[in-house]
Write a structure and sequence with these properties.
This protein has 180 residues and is mostly helical. Helices cover 76% and strands 4% of the residues. The protein contains 9 helices and 2 strands. The chain has a two-stranded antiparallel ribbon. A hairpin with a 3-residue loop joins strand 1 and strand 2. Helix 6 runs antiparallel to helix 7. The longest helix has 27 residues.
Length: 180
């Protein structure tokens, strides 16, 4: 029985890998709807295949179907993902959708997991997104405090804003505190 399970597990892994390759091929051909259908079939056949959810969310984002992508990414958390990248993606997407409180929540979760997994990229990126969400909520001192934990010059491109750095946040938040 154990051997059969191992064989079935191997077959499932092989099926997942083949399906992911097929999805990638379909995306290259701009056949997004078929790729999404493949994702849905894989999720139905192997709900533990987290990569299928990630692929689906990535495709939905590329199609600018952000709210749907957010729901798919939240499903990853619901089924037990502890990957910092999944929380980072939720933070980034929440910020893009103007859901600042949610962005802060996901940033905090990502920061915790990044500390456990020693993943500095997701840690710093989440702190940066959190600082931007705090700035959007006019929580200026908290935005300053978060930004001050980042290296000088840290920054990234933000959808709808363009390139933004730690210093941009500090300048905007400082100006707002001074003039309010």
């Amino acid at each position: 029985m154990e051997t059969k399970f191992a064989f079935e597990d191997f077959q499932m892994k092989e099926n997942i890998e083949l399906t992911i390759k097929k999805i990638a091929s379909l995306v290259k051909k701009d056949d997004y709807e078929t790729a999404l259908n493949c994702c849905d079939e894989l999720i139905a056949d192997a709900p533990q295949a987290w990569i299928a959810y990630r692929e689906k969310a990535d495709i939905l984002e590329s199609l600018k179907r952000y709210n749907e992508a957010l729901v798919v990414r939240e499903t990853l958390i619901d089924i037990g993902s502890d990957e910092p990248s999944d929380y980072y993606d939720l933070c980034r997407l929440s910020l893009k959708l103007g859901k600042n409180n949610e962005a802060i929540h996901w940033a905090d979760e990502c920061i915790k997991l990044s500390n456990i997994h020693n993943n500095f990229y997701y840690h710093d990126a989440s702190v940066f997104y959190k600082a931007n969400a705090l700035l959007n909520l006019k929580r200026y001192q908290e935005a300053i405090d978060a930004s001050n934990t980042l290296e000088n010059g840290y920054g990234t491109y933000l959808s709808g804003i363009g390139m933004r750095t730690k210093e941009d946040i500090l300048k905007e938040a400082g100006y707002s505190i001074k003039n309010n």
